[in-house]
Give the backbone structure.
Amino acid sequence: MSKVDIIVSVRGLNKAFEARNVLKDVYIDFPRGKITSIIGQSGIGKSVLFKTIIGIMTPDSGSIIVDSEDITALPEREKRRIRKRFGYAFQDAALFDSMTVAENISFPLREVLGMKDKKEMRRIVREKLEWIDLPGIENKYPSELSGGMRKRVGVARTLAVEPDILLFDEPTTGLDPVLGANINALIKRVNEEFGITCIVISHDIIGTFKIADKIAFLADGTIKAAGTPAEVAQAEHPILKQFLQNSFTNLEVASPGETEMAG
């Protein structure tokens, strides 16, 4: 059996807020060039794990190793160098309301990469908008876009800086099942066409099992189970079994939401 190529490795991670231990001795590996999804109940610490991995939050103890380099031990200047390898697709897209789509996508090119060539920035904006199948919307503002379109523009903005690792925070939240499936398909395209390692927090259990190469279940601050979708589905951990049972039951009985205009 060939050795799995790990791009990010989390070792013994702990993070507490006052008296609450949110992350407790978390261990998880993220395979290079694959999609890993982290599932679990709301408020269990998935976003905190994300923010410690990307360096927005500092863990109380433990290590985050990116390509054999422990980033928790690096000085701030070196941490910024590592952060440039990460992209982050926010749950609500986090577009700047006062900026056009083109200005939103150009923002990290200018502020993160220090790009000054406006012609080159316009080319990248056009290229990324075409890739997400939204050509010609450069001059629109976020308020003129549907929720699904805003999420896709958020992905385009992140792709513009060509990250090695892309984190998706609840990418299908607020979308009806059809648009949610479109976003999941977009994540799959990002992974397959660019070879980007994707790490996804998701409550969309059906979508997760369709697109993920690896799934990790977070509960009580620790990873209770991790493996391929088939392995996780068959895991005997009682909390995981109850979580999956409740998730699929809720999906079956939920009323279909109002379909959002794809625009």
